[in-house]
Structures are given as structure tokens and as C-alpha cells.
């Protein structure tokens, strides 16, 4: 009987291996998450300098301690409807995406979440039918609502990455 109980009980290390830590954030009424390992820092809105002839979802660049970082309006990139223009209250997630530091404007940052990886469901086929939604990694229930887990490694298409490189001056 003791052996059965021991098999049901996970060790602390096994439990840590199955947990994924996410930074939760909102855009409108929707809850999103990004792997905490991608997040370099989170800042309040900073002065953004517009870049001529950039795609409409690129707000511009910021100077973060001497580094010029492109900033993307995630709401525009995800084609989410904006009820109001409260961007002065926005936050910027500074993410390291394949060694490219990029800022993403979000409405608010909520909290760090610990999610058991097995609770993350693949996105419904209706959602991923369009290639534009390839950056949705999964969906999970966080109690009061659903959280959409984004794959920021795939959020920009190849030609958009080239445009970002041009902005960076590479």
C-alpha cells in the first residue's frame, strides 16, 4: 500500500520539471502569457521615437541604457480591437527572442504564473487554421479565465525580422 502512495506522489524535482513559469499580461480583456525565461525586464512606458516607413505594428525605438531597441505594439500585431487609447498607461515587455532584444507594448502586466505543462492545451484548429496565428502556442485554464500562451519566437515573420534588422542598423 505504501508503494502505491509513493508512485502517486511526485518528488519536488519532478514537479519543478513539469512546471512552466510565465509572465502574465493583458491586452484588452484577454489574458496572455510568455515564458519567463524570455523576459529580460518589464518597464513602464518609455519615450518612443517613430521610425519612418516601418510596418504599422512597429511603434518605433527606445533607448534603454544606451541600447536602441525596436518596440512593437502587440495589440496591432495580433490584430486585437482597441476600445480606448490608454497607451500612456501601457507597459513594455523587453524580451530576448533568438538573441534579438525587442520591446512589446502590452496594456498591463499581471503576475508570474506557474503552470503545469500538461494543462496547456493546443490551440483549437479553428484558431490555427490561418497561418497568421502560428504564434499561439497553447491555451490553459487559470481559474477565472483562459490564458493564451504566445510563442514569441514565431510572432514575427521572416520579412518582418529583416525590417527589424534594418531598424537596428544591422
Give an account of the 3D structure.
The protein is of the alpha+beta class. It is 19% helix and 41% strand. The chain has helices at 2-8, 12-18, 74-77, 125-128, 158-168; strands at residues 19-27, 30-35, 39-44, 58-64, 67-73, 91-97, 100-106, 108-116, 136-141, 146-150. The strands form two sheets. A five-stranded mixed beta sheet has the order 8-1-2-10-9. A five-stranded mixed beta sheet has the order 3-6-7-5-4. Mean pLDDT is 79; it is low at 1-9.
Note the main attributes of this structure:
170 residues, 5-stranded mixed sheet, alpha+beta, 10 strands, 5 helices
Summarize, please.
This protein has 170 residues and is an alpha+beta fold.
Mean pLDDT level: 79
Secondary-structure-based class equals alpha+beta
Tell me the strand percentage band: 35-45%
Classify the helix fraction into a percent range: 10-25%
What is the H/E order?
HHEEEEEHEEEHEEH
Number of strand segments: 10
The total of helices stands at 5
Can you lay out the helices and strands and say which pair or pack?
Blueprint: H1 2-8, H2 12-18, E1 19-27, E2 30-35, E3 39-44, E4 58-64, E5 67-73, H3 74-77, E6 91-97, E7 100-106, E8 108-116, H4 125-128, E9 136-141, E10 146-150, H5 158-168
Parallel strand pairs: 2-10, 5-7
Antiparallel strand pairs: 1-2, 1-8, 3-6, 4-5, 6-7, 9-10
